[in-house]
Design a protein that fits this description.
globular, TATA-Binding Protein, Alpha-D-Glucose-1,6-Bisphosphate, Chain A, domain 3, six-stranded mixed beta sheet, alpha/beta, seven-stranded antiparallel beta sheet
Length: 564
């Protein structure tokens, strides 16, 4: 069915009083707008469904949410009554329609005879991931668009291992979803009816405590080892992190930390930040203002569903310096390894996991402590998906992370977790302050010890169907014209993960290794309208590493941008 036929079907089947019908009526005759909404169906990417909230098959709305939920319900029903009894847990973030979509989905699962658990209000993504294993649920759903702009919402799907669904499970769910249309075959009961029937249970605050107890159990230092008076600033960027982060800092005894009040409460408009992504230094504007007032050494931020975490440090020149995800990862890897070695709790069979587009510096650091660093494809369904392999091979999981400010600090929470990452970074800052050092000085010391690594992760935003097609042409061009040298440096090796590599699943990623030790990778985002680039170099000085990296980046971006 073509996009105009889909448009006509929706216009015919949407109720007269449905706002989506009025929205579609307003674009009648606008073939470009209709194509954007109907040429594609939302599909499972790196982290489930994600799209602009509006009418159409390529958008987030009650019909796309309903179809996806019914498909997943059908998949669970086929697993048998035991799976249905174990149930599904549903969470949501502060975005427009997040609560409504979550309750709508709960009513669908309940109407299909599947036990369903929900939270009384918004909760962090990592709490959902933890609760799936804690309650032995068969699946989990989070209505969230993570760090995307306010126009977006999304639908993250989890399986019984507490990870976002693997490719195998996602394929099975997708088959069930594609077998449905958007207007028939959706079984649903009202949310209140589901509660009255006993099929929907709202989890009380005692479950929040269980999650925080797990987070706080991974502390490495405490008490007199820490200077708990260290001045710190935190912002939840108007998301789900506010309450759990406050409680965690109180539990740990920090006495001089401050929250950005303008960003402390849920706000689907994200009025004071605009783009609520801690990967962007712009998200720290109000944090910096507060930090200067209180003399903060460390600024911390989580995104709206509190799985991503980023920081700024007070540099030696008195200005705040934003760290990319690799640099924060260096600090966490070092703190975990150094702290556990000093405490005598570093296992001989320790293992860590990083994504294939994350810097190699942490691998060098891990090796110095006798810890093996494994690689995975991007996304925490893959990073935490490595944990069963490690356990089967008698290896102790210590930490997993990727460059896009995601960190998983314990095997019981199998997704990136901004709350536990924040706790460890705040603890590290307090620990080193007790020793007379700042985190900035610690980071500089790591470069001196392990070498100067430069990293750059630019991306090109190409929205809509036309943008997606251009991204495909870019990837096709690079595959058809593999460079033999870049910026005068010979290419020694190319890995194309589309063909699978080193026991990893297939993925649309190209990785190039250069003879001087630099490397770079190219991949389309699985959740955003972007093509992403990752450039890494190391040298004897910071300036030299950056100069090499910049020349490689400019050469590759020039080549790719030329593809129309």
């Amino acid at each position: 069915m073509g996009y105009m036929e889909k448009y006509s079907e929706w216009m015919e089947k949407l109720p007269e009083n449905d706002p989506l019908r009025e929205e579609l009526k307003a674009i009648e005759g606008d073939h470009r707008a209709i194509r954007e909404r109907f040429q594609l169906d939302l599909s499972f990417g790196t982290a489930g469904l994600r799209g602009i909230v509006s009418a159409g098959t390529n958008r987030m709305n009650f019909y796309t949410v309903g179809r996806a939920t019914q498909g997943i319900a059908n998949f669970i029903v086929k697993q048998g009554q035991a799976a249905m009894n174990r149930g599904v847990i549903i969470a949501h973030d502060p975005r427009y329609f997040s609560k409504e979509f979550s309750q709508y989905a709960a009513g669908i699962f309940a109407a299909n005879g599947i036990k369903t658990y929900t939270f009384p209000d918004l909760r962090p993504t990592p709490e959902l991931a933890f609760m799936i294993r804690h309650l032995n649920a068969v699946s989990g759903i989070n209505i969230t668009a993570s760090h995307n702009p306010k126009e977006y919402n999304g639908y993250k799907a989890y399986w019984e291992d507490g990870c976002q669904v693997s490719s195998v499970i996602a394929d099975g769910m997708t088959d069930e979803i594609r077998a449905l249309d958007y207007f028939t075959g959706i079984r649903r009961m009202g949310f209140s009816q589901g509660i009255e029937s006993g099929l929907i249970t709202i989890l009380d605050e005692s479950y929040d405590r269980k999650y925080l107890d797990m987070v706080e159990s991974i502390a490495i230092h405490s008490g007199d080892e820490l200077d708990l008076s260290i001045p710190l600033v935190y912002t939840p960027l108007n998301g789900a992190g506010s309450i759990p982060f406050r409680q965690m800092m109180k539990d740990r005894g920090f006495t001089n930390w401050h929250i950005v009040e303008e960003q402390s409460m849920p706000d689907p408009e994200f009025t004071t930040v605009g783009y609520p992504n801690p990967e962007s230094p712009a998200a720290f504007k109000l944090s910096e203002e507060l930090g200067r007032k209180v003399g903060a050494e460390l600024l911390m931020a989580t995104d709206p569903d509190s799985d991503r975490f980023a920081i700024e440090l007070l540099g030696d020149d008195g200005n705040y310096v934003w760290l990319n995800g690799n640099q924060t990862g260096y600090l966490l890897v070092n703190y975990i390894l150094e702290g556990r070695k000093d405490a005598g709790t570093l296992p001989k069979n320790g293992a860590m996991v990083k994504s294939i587009v994350t810097s190699d510096m942490s691998e060098v650091m891990a090796e110095a402590y006798g810890v093996k660093m494994y690689e995975s494809l991007t996304g925490f369904k893959n990073i935490c998906g490595r944990i069963p392999y490690l356990e089967e091979n008698n290896l102790a999981y210590l930490f997993g992370y990727e460059e896009s400010v995601g960190y998983a600090a314990c095997p019981e929470i199998r997704d990136k977790d901004g709350i536990s990452a924040g706790m460890l970074v705040a603890e590290a800052a307090a620990y080193y302050r007790k020793q007379g050092k700042t985190l900035w000085q610690v980071l500089e010391g790591l470069y001196k010890k392990y070498g100067y690594y430069a990293e750059d992760e630019p991306n090109l935003i190409l929205e809509g169907v036309d943008g997606a097609e251009r991204i495909n042409r870019m990837m096709g061009y690079v595959r058809g014209h593999l460079p033999q040298e870049v910026a005068g440096i010979r290419v020694e090796k190319v890995i194309d993960y589309i063909n699978a590599y080193d026991e990893l699943f297939r993925s649309n990623v190209l990785r190039f290794y250069l003879e001087n030790g630099s490397w770079f990778a190219i991949r389309p985002s699985g959740t955003e309208p972007k093509i992403k680039f990752y450039f890494y170099s190391n040298a004897k000085s910071k300036d030299e590493a950056q100069e090499i990296n910049t020349s490689i980046k400019e050469a590759i971006l020039t080549m790719v941008n030329a593809v129309e």
